[in-house]
Every structure is written in structure tokens, then in C-alpha cells.
Amino acid sequence: MKAPSFAYAKPRSLAEAFDLLERPGAKVLAGGQSLIPSLNLRLSSPELLVDITGLSGLNNIELGNGAVRIGALCTHSEVEKSEPVRKHLPLVAEAVAHIAHPAIRNRGTLGGSLALADPAAELPACALALDAVLIIAGKKGERRVSAGEFFKALFETDLKPAELLVGVEFPQADKSVFLELTRRLGDYAIVGLAGVTRSAQKRICFFGIGGMPVLLRPKSLEEAKSSLPTPSADLYHSASTKLHLAKVLLERAWNKL
Amino acid sequence: MEQAVATTMTVNGAQVTRSIPARQHLVDFLREELGLTGSHLGCEHGVCGACTIRVNGEIVRGCLMLAVQANGCRVDTIEGLSDSKELEKLQKAFHEKNALQCGFCTPGMLMAAQDLLRKKTRPSREEIRAHISGNYCRCTGYQAIVDAIEEVIHG
Q1: Searching chain A, which residue's CA lies closest to the CA of residue B111?
Q2: A162: left (phi over 0), alpha (psi -120 to 50) or beta
Q3: Are A126 and A159 members of one domain?
């Protein structure tokens, strides 16, 4: 199908972007790898697309203070290839390789994936497991929100209208493991797990099991298994299959953390 | 609101300037405005890979990019890569190994396969499969396609 009609603007500065985003029916376009399918399927009908890919300074990857700061406009391919990410954030480097396919990773952005908050996506789970800080800019300046407070519900975040996610700080972990089960390579997860150990504390985040990623901070494997919520069934997998698979991933992950 | 945006891009080496409706995606523009019908439209929501093209040297889904977003970009399609003979070996191997039947997926498959050959010197069968995982073929069962790509790698 073809997308409905909309107007298009490509701001050159954040200030111009905020002005455009205040217009009725305005929506942010970054890599477009989730937005354009939803336009083509007519699931979304914005009046104005504000293409933020012309904004400068939003695609850097910097290391500092025990964290890696990644600009919101970095594509998944750029994150995947980044030396600082591979060295200091192996969890994220492993996770992005699971996002769709090379041609999609070349356009899709880190900020776009987090701002969409798809419960089956890899990056929101990584942000929660690592306790990342999301940097949000608006007309009144910047604010910092922890991943735990950023993700509110299914496809809902703390982002207000006319605000932009500009970057994310991922604190390093001592150990990490990323596991994902899919029917075919590049599909959305049947169930997936992003786990880290930091200061002897395990943080394990499941995705693809319900309306939100689920973060556990278990002391033991038994405690982790028993605190897993009952997953929602999807078109192909029952709730009990998903729960079983989540426990399988948990067992595989536990000894690596 | 319908809006047309003045857009300039370089398609297969030639500069093109057009006023493009904001809602038109890049493959519709290439096919309908420029007559470059080698890039195919299958699912039109990023699943099948038949519309794979190169933008600024990297493969993308042509249906998941607005044509106006290609302003200032270099766009290369199956036509350009065929004419420049960049795909010659792959095309010959696809022919010889019977790596296509109906041919609908083939332009996208060649674009994805060539992308791998440019980036990795000796990819394994697993790596080949991973790289073309976003390109659907409903005829061959993929074995012959992987065979053809391997043929080019090992000569």
C-alpha cells in the first residue's frame, strides 16, 4: 500500500525542529524503519513529518566516566561497527546484530528504536539492563531520565510532544550476555534476554514476552525463574511455550553472568 | 497535506532533479518517474528485500526511504551495477547454478550478495545466509543462491 499524504520538513537546528514539532499532527522521522512501514500500511497518518536526520551532533559515540554515550541518530550499523561499543559495551554490540537485516540496520537508528519502545525490540531491554540514562532535549533545555522511568507502557515513553531523544549514556557492566530466540534470523524475538552483572548484582531484562520489557534483579536462579511473569501469547507461541523458553534462556545466561 | 519537495540526487551516476511528493518512497520514484523498473516492489513494508538498492554506498530498503530523503544522496540500482559490470560474476554464477526461477527476488538478492562480497573476503556459508536473511525467495529454497554466491567467492 502507499503512504497517506503528509507535509515534510527537514530542520537544520534543534530550535527549528522544536518549532516544527509544535505544529498539529507533527511526527519525528529519523531512520524511518518502523515509521515508514506503518505509513505504508496506513497505521499512522501524521500531517507533518519532521526529518531530523539533518541535525548535526547527534551521531557521535563517546567514551567517558565509565559510560559510552551514543548519539540518537547513530544507525544500528554504526553502533555495531563502533570500537568503543564493541570493547566497552559488548551487550549492545551483540544486541544490534540481532536487529532485522543489514539493509535495515543501515538506516534504523538507536534513538528511533528507544523512542518507539517496541516491547519485542532489543535496545530497550539493553537500556534497562544497563540502567542507561536517556538524554531528552526540548525548548526548555535538556533533561536526563533513567531507562526505568523512560519506558511507560506498550509503545509509550516519557517523551513529551515537541521533545527529542538526543542521546543515551550506557554505563559499562562487569559481565554481560545477550540471547534471543527467533523463528528466522532478523525476526522479532519469540523471547530474548539482555543480562549484565555490575558490582556482583545481576540485572536481567526479558523482551518479547509482554507489553513491556521485564527487568529482574534476582539473587538466585530459582528466584529469577519464579519471578518471571506469565508472558503474553503471540500468533505462533502460547504463553506456556514462551515461559518455558524464557527459563531456558535464563539457565543459559546464568553461568555467564 | 500533499506537498512536493524539490529534490536532487545522483542515480547511477547521473544527476536528477525533480519535484517529488513527500509521501512517495524511493522505489516508486525510481520505477515510475525514472523508468528504472529493476528494483522490485514486493511487500512494501520492509520484509521481503526485493527493493534493495544502494544509497551512499550502503544497501537499504528502497520502500522504507522517502524519495525526498535521498536529496543530495548517491543512489545505485541494479541497472547501474549491471551496466558497470560490478555484478558480472554474480550474475553468471546465478545463471549457472540455477539460483533463480521466477526472478522477482533476484535484483534485491544480487544487491545484498554483492554487498557481502565487498565487505568480507571469504564469508562462510553461515555468513552468506545471515547476509541475505532479509531477502525472500519463494522459488529456490535458497540452496542454489548460496551455492552461486560461494561460487564467486571460491572462483
Answers
A1: A103
A2: left
A3: yes
Of B3, B25, B52, the CB nearest to A103: B52
What residues of chain A have any CB closer than 8 angstroms to a CB in chain B? Answer: 1-8, 10, 29, 32-33, 36-37, 39-41, 47-49, 51, 53, 77, 100-104, 106-107, 184-186
pLDDT band of B4, cuts 50, 70, 90: very high
Which pLDDT score, from 0 to 100, does residue A74 have?
A: 98
- Quote the minimal CA–CA distance from A223 to chain B in Å: 36
Of residues B3 and B21, the one with the higher pLDDT is B21
Q: Residue B2 has what pLDDT? A: 73
Q: Are residues A161 and A185 in the same domain?
A: no
Please determine, for residue B21, whether its predicted confidence score (pLDDT) is greater than 90: yes
Tell me whether residue A1 is in a domain.
no
Span B110-148, pLDDT tens digits: 999 999 999 999 999 999 999 999 999 999 999 999 999
Is the Cβ–Cβ distance between B19 and B6 less than 8 Å? yes
ipTM, 2 decimals? 0.96
Q: Which domain holds residue A156?
A: 61-171
Do A98 and A86 touch, CB atoms closer than 8 A? no
Out of 3.40.50.2300, 3.40.50.300, 3.30.420.40, 1.10.150.120, the CATH code matching B86-154 is 1.10.150.120
Q: Tell me the domain boundaries of chain B.
A: 4-81, 86-154
Interface contact B65-A40, CB threshold 8 A: no
* Overall size of chain A counted in residues: 257
Phi, psi of B49 (to 5 degrees): 80, 0
List the CATH code of the domain at B4-81: 3.10.20.30
Residue B1: is its pLDDT beyond 80?
no
- The reply to whether A131 and A222 lie within a common domain is no
- How far apart are alpha carbons A206 and A192 in whole angstroms? 6
Q: Identify whether residues A186 and A152 lie together within a single domain.
A: no
Average pLDDT over residues B64-86: 98
pLDDT tens sequence across A152-163: 999 999 999 999
CA A54, CA B5: separation in Å to the nearest integer?
16
Quick check: B65 and A51 in contact, CB under 8 A? no
Q: Nearest chain A residue to B68 by CA: give it.
A: A8
Question: How many domains does chain A divide into?
Answer: 3
Beta bridge partners, B5, equal B20
- For residues A242 and A199, state if they share a domain: yes
